[in-house]
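FAQ
Q: What does a multi-component entry look like?
A: The components come first, one per line:
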Amino acid sequence: MTQGAAGSEFDVRLKAVAGAIETLLDRLLSPATLAGEIARPPRLLEAIRYSSLGGGKRLRPFLVVETARLFGAEGEGVLRAAAAVEMIHCYSLVHDDLPALDNDDLRRGRPTTHNAYDEATAILVGDSLLTYAFDVTADPLTHADPAIRAELVLALARAAGFGGMIGGQVLDLEAEHAREAHTPEAVIRLQSMKTGALLHYSVVAGAILGKADAKARAALSAYGHALGAAFQVADDILDVEADEAVLGKRAGKDAERNKATLVAALGLEAARLRRDRLAAEAIAALDSLSQGCDASILKEAARFVAARAS
Amino acid sequence: MTQGAAGSEFDVRLKAVAGAIETLLDRLLSPATLAGEIARPPRLLEAIRYSSLGGGKRLRPFLVVETARLFGAEGEGVLRAAAAVEMIHCYSLVHDDLPALDNDDLRRGRPTTHNAYDEATAILVGDSLLTYAFDVTADPLTHADPAIRAELVLALARAAGFGGMIGGQVLDLEAEHAREAHTPEAVIRLQSMKTGALLHYSVVAGAILGKADAKARAALSAYGHALGAAFQVADDILDVEADEAVLGKRAGKDAERNKATLVAALGLEAARLRRDRLAAEAIAALDSLSQGCDASILKEAARFVAARAS
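Then the predicted structure of the entire assembly, as tokens:
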């Protein structure tokens, strides 16, 4: 899927972070870790593990870890903050897949949580992961300085809330029944909220953990916005291209559902141009970082995000 | 409903805090407050307001405010922390009422959120209120000291999470189909998680905001545990008594659903004795506070909680 050569530094690091996050999530969600507290219902914990372990590239945690590493911040605390973002991402997938929302049966080839368990469990799995993300972020184990923890919590809540991810999900559902929500401007706003906000947070969290100065934070914030936007256009393009490859026609799953996509709003060619322009913008934003900062991995991440759909 | 004389100091304060919380929630959830950020979908915000404004005694905020006031902590920040607990409470009601969970049509005489709007909206309203509670708690407006904010977030996440409220909700659902979950010990554990944890947090939050010393915190924590337990027994008793009054039979809504209750587990008389003993325990716990602390309002709150069902 990636343009980078197999075994490139980027690929190696992406896999390494994904492995570290998997190990940490496994531990954070293990009965042994949680045994000291009030005993939890075993079936809920099993469903939470089903919904968060064993999958994905862990792109959001990767952005947290690699951004923090620009400033020399590494280790358990950074990984915990990164795992918390992934919990938010996983909760959003579990709730979005529910029958009342996108009604999806499969996710990465496996039954969705409400299919593997039941709807009540899926709702409570999502609630649990959302809540636990704030628990993990606010815990002193994540950072010794409470000002860092409180800042992370606030930024995460804003990215995940009705001004961010949840608001975007609502606009996405509404757009299925409202043509006026399919203008390029409306789709861009929807996407900046639904997927962009949490990707942007991931980069900002790395900057917070690295105690980046105001100039570096502004550069990284611009990078995060452009990367988040590029990610979603690439996703829209991927939906159409995957379908073309399989079915030989240009009507992906998004189109079937009347989802608001930038491919539909702009056309495939203009969407590709926008994706490439956004990836270039993301890379350019990093150029204003001080020369001591080697942001080559983050630049590679922007290329990777765009290349998913090429 | 309360034993105290109308116009008693307790009643006056309970109403005053409820009024202040209503005003603050209205403001925190107003389009004007939120206008500076990314525009939110208006229907979602309307449904969030429907689910959190205009109701209830606001007992949890009252406990936050009155506990903080023991230590001279008052004002906007304390009210914000208190409003955040109420958001968590409201989110839990919206999700618990969903068709896949308790499937309730009415809540305080009004259609439940999924009936007034739709199921997708109700799920996202709950997610929004849960997320916003952490946003409001972590915001510098709540307390200037980030250590206080981070401690509040951590305690709130633990009370609301799978080791607390959510875990209790799962046990509650499981108990409908498992007789072994109806032993007094199992019901007491379930209730200490489902409703006790958030009531306990409310008292602890007041102690954190008031920078109470370790001895006072231990006393208030004991008070919070006893009060939370008394609250739920009183609720179980109320369910049976309300039904007796209306229908002339001893089979309340809980019994119909095979809910695990302490009335069913212990019998009505033993449940009443337990409730009164817990209220007395809560009151006694406050006696170890230093003499400068006038905890009479919190003592009255324990009597009030027990008296709901007398």
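Q: Is there any commentary attached?
A: Sometimes. For this entry: The radius of gyration of chain A is 19 Å.
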